C-alpha cells in the first residue's frame, strides 16, 4: 500500500487483480504490477479459465507489468499451451524493453508474438508455431 500526502492509502498496482474482459471476439487479460512467483500463484487459475474459454484469441496485456521474471514466462507458456490445445491463439501486448529482451533471450518471441498495442494484438497475424 502507498500512503498519499493526505494520509489515505491507495493499493499498489500489484495489489489490484487482473482485468479480464471480452473484446472483438477475444478475451483480454490485463496483468498489473510484478509478475513473479507470488503473482503466478495468484493468477494461474484465472489464466487457466481464460485459456479454456471459447474465444479463438486470448490476449495477455503486459502494459502495466512493472517486473517480469521466469514465473511470468512460465505463466505465459502454460496459458499458450492450453489455448493452443483447444485450437486458439495467444497474443501478448508488450513494449517494455527488458521484458522483450527476456523473450528474445529465451527464444520465445515467435511463440508469444508480442504486439506493441492491444489493437495490434487483436489484428494478428496469429502464431502458427
From TrEMBL:
Name recorded for this polypeptide: Anti-sigma factor antagonist
Family that this chain belongs to: Belongs to the anti-sigma-factor antagonist family.
GO MF annotations in UniProt: anti-sigma factor antagonist activity
Chain ranges of the STAS domain: 16-125
Domain of life (superkingdom): Bacteria
Organism: Streptomyces formicae
UniProt-listed PANTHER family: ANTI-SIGMA FACTOR ANTAGONIST TM_1081-RELATED (PTHR33495:SF2), ANTI-SIGMA FACTOR ANTAGONIST TM_1081-RELATED-RELATED (PTHR33495)
Amino acid at each position: 500500500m502507498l500512503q498519499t500526502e493526505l494520509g489515505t492509502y491507495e493499493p499498489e498496482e500489484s495489489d489490484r487483480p487482473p482485468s479480464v474482459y471480452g473484446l472483438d471476439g477475444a478475451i483480454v487479460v490485463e496483468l498489473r504490477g510484478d509478475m513473479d512467483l507470488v503473482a503466478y500463484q495468484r493468477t494461474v487459475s484465472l489464466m487457466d479459465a481464460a485459456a479454456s474459454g471459447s474465444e479463438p484469441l486470448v490476449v495477455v496485456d503486459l502494459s502495466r507489468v512493472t517486473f517480469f521474471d521466469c514465473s511470468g514466462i512460465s505463466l505465459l507458456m502454460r496459458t499458450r499451451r492450453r489455448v493452443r490445445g483447444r485450437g486458439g491463439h495467444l497474443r501478448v501486448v508488450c513494449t517494455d524493453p527488458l521484458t522483450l529482451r527476456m523473450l528474445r533471450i529465451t527464444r520465445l518471441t515467435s511463440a508469444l508474438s508480442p504486439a506493441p498495442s492491444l489493437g495490434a494484438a487483436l489484428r494478428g497475424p496469429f502464431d502458427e508455431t
